[in-house]
Model the fold of this input.
Amino acid sequence: MAMANKGMQSLGDLFANYQLDDKGGFITQEFQDFGYRLAVELEDLKHKSLYIKMSKEVDRVLLERALSFVKDAASAKSKAKLFMWKVKQLKQEKKNESP
Done:
């Protein structure tokens, strides 16, 4: 497709020069992105599928509170273990509050 003005290019030509980094993963839902970001924050990419599953099934506020707790604990040996402990504790508190 030839353009009348030499300064203009077709969209196909413009985007032909750009390559996206495809790492082979398929994040199509918001909860998947949140779970992946949890794994990155907790430095536990090995168990990213666990965090994705948790982000789908567990209350988001609860997960964010647990993550905030872990961020505040700078001297934690294992951020992932501390996170899981805090999630369990928060779930128990929520259960005890409910009539």
